[in-house]
Fold this protein.
Amino acid sequence: MLIRSHMHDLKDITCDVHYENYRAQCIQQMTSKLSQDNRVESPIPILPLSTPDAETEKLIKMKDEELRRMQEMLQKMQQQMHEQDL
């Protein structure tokens, strides 16, 4: 009876170990195959830097002007606060 239960446990453990080893090997083969396929088929494309178009340049100039106006307004407010404190 004792030998039978130990033999059954040994079979179960052996089956589990073999299955886990097989599963790990299959996963490793799939991932290595996928990584090899990705390297060959689709390398990372290098996009050239685009030159800004006229609309983008116009938008940048508008934002710069807005920033300059906001800074001037901030300076005026700080002067007014300073004058009020005196």
